[in-house]
Structure formats: C-alpha cells, structure tokens
Amino acid sequence: MKTNKLFLIISREFLIRVKKKSFIIMTILTPLLFAALIVMPSLIMTLSSGNKGQKILVIDRSELCQPFFENSEEYTYLFDKNADIESIKKDFPESLYAAVEISAPDSMFNVSVSTISTKQMNIDTKKQIERNVQKAMEKSKLEKYDIENLDNILKDIRTDVSVKTFTISESGEEKEGMVELYMGIAYILSFMIYMFIFMFGSMVMRGVIEEKTTRIVEVIVSSVKPFELMLGKILGVGSVALLQFLIWIVLTGGIIFGAQAIMGADKLTESNELVQQMAAGQTATDAITSITAESTPMDNIMASLANVPIARILTAFILYFLLGYLLYAALFSAVGSAVDNEADTQQLILPVTLPLIIGLFIMIHTFQYPDSSLSFWGSMIPFTSPMVMMARVPFGVPAWELALSLALLVGTFIFMTFVSAKIYRVGILMYGKKANWKDLIKWLKY
Amino acid sequence: MDIITCQNVVKKFNDFTALDNVSISVPKGKIFGLLGPNGAGKTTLIRIMNQITLPDSGEVLFNGAKLQRDDIAYIGYLPEERGLYKKMKVGDQALYLARLKGLSKEEATRELKHWFVKFGIQAWWNKKVEELSKGMAQKVQFICTILHKPSLLILDEPFSGFDPVNVQLVRNEILLMRDAGTSVILSTHNMESVEELCDNIALINKAKLIITGELDQIRRDHGKNEVEVIYRASAPHSFAANNLISLVNQEETKRGYRAILEVKKEACSSEILRSLVSEIDILSYRELIPRMNDIFIKLVS
Prior knowledge:
The complex is a heterodimer of chains A (about 450) and B (about 300). Chain A is α/β, with parallel strands linked by helices. Chain A has 17 helices and six strands. The longest helix of chain A has about 40 residues, at about 225-265. In chain B, the strands form three sheets. In chain B, strands 6-7-8-3-9-10 form a six-stranded mixed β-sheet, sandwiched between helices.
C-alpha cells in the first residue's frame, strides 16, 4: 500500500516532466550539440582547405629564404626581390592575398619580416611564414660553420620523440595512459555532474514551490506523508535525469558513429586527437600543424582508450551523480518548502548552492593536480565529492578512498534527507511569512 | 458512539500554543460544527485529526481506537487552503488524488465518471485546471474529497468560492451523505450554515475549547427563555391573569401587537399556547432562541 503510493507519486512526477515539450527538445538538441562539438573541428578543417591557391608575394631581400617557401595546396608564392613595398601598399593588387617583405640579414642573420594584406592575416599563414624564415636563417647560420655533409648530418639527427605515460596498477601490470584523454573524460563527466545536480535540484525545488503556490499540498499530505511526497518528487525527477542522460549517451554515440560513416573514420580520429591536444593546453594551430605535419599515431590513442577503465568510470559517474543529486535535491526541496514563490528563494538558496560552486572550483584545480591534498579533501567532503571525485576517477583512485568517499556521501545524504524532511513537513504548510534560516532551524523542533 | 474523539490535545509551536488541552467528540452520522475566530487553532486541530501534524500530548481516537495511519483512507479532507496542479488535466488529476487515497484505477475511474455526470462537468475531463474558473475548480476538489466514500468528512470553509446555486448543490450533497451515515466536521465562519446544518458544535478561541455540545441546547442555554407572540387585538392585552408567563415588553406593529413574554418555570410551548389561545387571537408564536452569530460574538469577545 505505502510503496504503491510512493510509486504513484514518482510516476506522476516523472510523466508530467517527460511529456513536456521543453524536455523533449532539450533531450534531442543537446546530443546534437555534443556531437557538433566533437565533429566540428574536422568539419572546420575540411572547410578551411577550401581557401586554395592564395597568392602571396615574397619580397626576399635576404636572398636566402626563397627555397623554404614551397607552394602548397593553399598558397602559391610569387617571388620578386626588387619589388617596391611602398607602391604595393599604395596600389594593392587584388589577386594577392598578402605581401611579405624580408629584410636583408645583418651579420648575426637577424632579419625583420613584415606582411601586408587587405584583411587581417590568418594566424596559420603567419606562423607558416615565421617558420619558413626561421628555417632559412638557421640553415644559413649552420652553413657558416662549414661542416661537411651538413645535409646528411641534419637528416641523421632528426628524431621523433613522443612521450608515452604508463601507470602501474596494483597488480603490477603496466598500462599505457594518456593524460589528455583522461582529462577530457574527467572534465566532461564531472562538469556534467555539476550541471545535472544544479539543473535537476532546482527542478525539484520548483516542483515543491508549485505545490505550495497552487495550495494542493495540504490535499496531498492528507493522503500521504509529507516525507513520501518529498521522496516521490526527488526520485521522480531523478528518473527524469537518468532517462535524459541515457538518451543523450545513445543519441550522441549514434550521431558520432553516423558522422564517422559519412565523413570517413580518419578525419574524425584526427579531430578527436585535436580535441585532446587542445585540452592538453596546446594552441589550435600547433595542434593542427602537428597533426598535418606528421602521420597520426592513431593506434596509440585507440590503445589507451581501451585501457581507460570504462566500466569503473561509468559506475562511479552514475553513483556520484545519483548520490550527489539525492543529497542536493533534499536540500533544494527544503528551501522550496520554505518560500511562497520562486523569487523568495534567493536568500535561502545561497548556503545550498555555495558548496556546489566551491566544488566546481576544486574540480577545475583537480584536473591539473588530481592527487593534491585539496583534491583529496574535496573528494572526501560529501558536498563537493560528487564533482571532485569524478574529476579524479579517470586518473585512477585507490579503492579505499573511493569507498570512504562513497560511504561519507551516503551517510550525509541520509542525514540531510532526514533534516530536510523535517523542515519540509513544516514549511509546506506555512503561508505568508517570509522564512529565514533561523526559522528553518526552529522548524526542526516542531 | 463517536467517530472521532480528541482527548486533552496540546500542540505548541515553540513559544506559541496553538491548542491548549482541547477535547471534543464528534458523534457518528451527525454534522459537527467546528467554530472559532481566525487563528484560534481550528486548522491545527483539523490537521491533527488528519495526521498531518502530530500533537505534543493528548490522544485522538478514531472509531474508539487510537488513530492510525491507515485510517486516512476513511477520512476525506477539504482544506481551507486548497488547489490543484494547474498544468494537469482535470480527469488525470482527480484520478491521481483518488488513487493516493487508496482507490484502484478502475474503481476511481468509475466513481469519478459517476460524480462528473452528477455534477454536470463531464466536459471538463480533458481540460487543464488553469482553464477552469475558481468555482469550477472547487467543484472538482469537492468531488475528490468525497470520492473514496469516507466515513468522516472534514470540510474547512466548503462553500467559499461557490455561487448560490452550487452552494445549494454542495449543501444537499453533504446532507445526503449525512443521511447515509457519514459523519461530517464543518469548519466555517458562516453562522447561517451552522444553524442550518450542524447538529453539534465546538467553539475554540485562543487555543482553548470554549464550549461544545448540541447546537440547539447551546442556543437555548444562551437564551433568556423568552417567546414572542404577535396577536390581533384592538387594545394591548395585559397577560396578568396567565401564571405561566410574565410580560417583558410589548409594542404595536403593522400586523398587530408584538409581545415578548418570559416563560416561567418549565412550561412547554403547547401548554403556554393552550393558555394563550383562550385569551388572544394569535397570529404567530415563536421561541426566542439567540442566533449563533450573537452567541459566537458574545463568547469570543
């Protein structure tokens, strides 16, 4: 009988939200956005190669650089070492994308380079020019030393270094890790927890306020216990969150695989790597050139993706999201019960949202230093642990820390639900009076 | 036999005492008026009977046994502060509330259809509540309160928001249910409804029970045992010869002379009438019972 009523409440809270247009739109649009974020970079790369055959005039007064400007798909270089820069400035030929003037070198092979273009020069082009001139000057300097077989030596000393990071698991097994990948996963998941707790916590709060302002709450609590109503609402909204999350994963996955099939797998892997390198702090241009310059060590990424303990991360995500949501939803509903309309929540909500926001800040720190003491304590304290621990999990966390953090979270969630229920029970039947935190504490004793 | 009994109920909210040692008994199959000024503690008492609030001390008995959680299935409560989910359809909402009371889906649907037809509101089933007027929503709420056939009906200001036609409809429904054996607790500030509907009352003021008992008895107790007689005559009658009564006051009106007479001893109306018939030509005879309104004001102030 009792579970039956709780189930009734849960299903009402669930259905009323799932049937809403805004839910359906959000649920479908967000994965499109996610997918766009992942597919976009490769799309941009495909599109940007459309600027083909742009002409750049190189005025090479040093007479050293010309061999280093090689025509590519994108740029065609014209050379005229005697051109008058002033006349070009006055009457810029329409056919030109840019003009580059390289001064004659001094004794130390320092040159100054200036470019003229009608539009702001593309940052890639600028970097390309810098690199070309730099290479030319370096080569000239080296030649000064008069070393025999210089070309061969240079070829010989060229080496490729890529750092592979390994972590040793407790069983002593080596695993190849990829810091950038972990950070990407940690970032997305812990930020999602923060967002979901905030979004669905306030959804619970609005639901409680709605019941109060429509005055239906007293009718309902004459049939069920206030605690059942509160719990039913929290669990109902929680199921909405889980459903949305599930649809998001399936849709995002579907869209990405679909895009992969259409655009070809290579491009997409390139763009994935691009995203990771960007996360690692490189600039976009560096990332692009490093990818285009060298062949992609795709196998490495795939190998480390397989090494990321997916099951462990997903389990942790669901546990921390659910428990974190339950903890905060209870607090949100206590606040909702104490006010008559949404505008009045501002003062009361701060103590609830503050730890959430602090958690977000610790989380950002944790991406850089997953094992610092701030990260450790942040992942233990229940009000911040859902976000902070989630940021740590992909890097690997000792089992006892996970267990302790979860146990603390469960304990706090049960305790806070109990406390919130007491406030809620009184608050939902109080009208007119604007309550503050002092009142809420008083209500605990009613 | 009483359907519900509150014994020495005390409820405090920190320093504020909402109910101070209140005891009332609501007899079965009767309409019980719970009266009192705003803030007297009526709503708190009603919430205690609905187990929304727990008393600090004192006991509540339902059908002679200690009030239990499962008893809520036998109580129908229409709170003063009432409403419905705005965005939900009327039918879905009524169904939800009925099922929360413990009715099965089939049972609830069948009963709802019956009542919606009876109240002439079938067309609203698929409307959203926000499309209804206040009076319309009140009708739906009333139906939701009585749908599960409670043996105790607690109505807090049930007539507010209704037009006179619907007041009559609801009033008749309440009386029909009383006749079918349902006990009703009626909390209202409308003393006319109290006089018309209630068999028993309790008056609460400032957290304390002032008076409780049968309505007629209370009214008579607060009267001076006087009767009003209007009679036709060419000159005022002296009433001096009648030893059952004594004249208090008399005046001439359009219809005739109007005399206020104090009834001596324990004379009953038929005795007095018999004695008067021989003396004067009586147009009307009326026991002077004070209005509930006057008693309320007298006791509360």
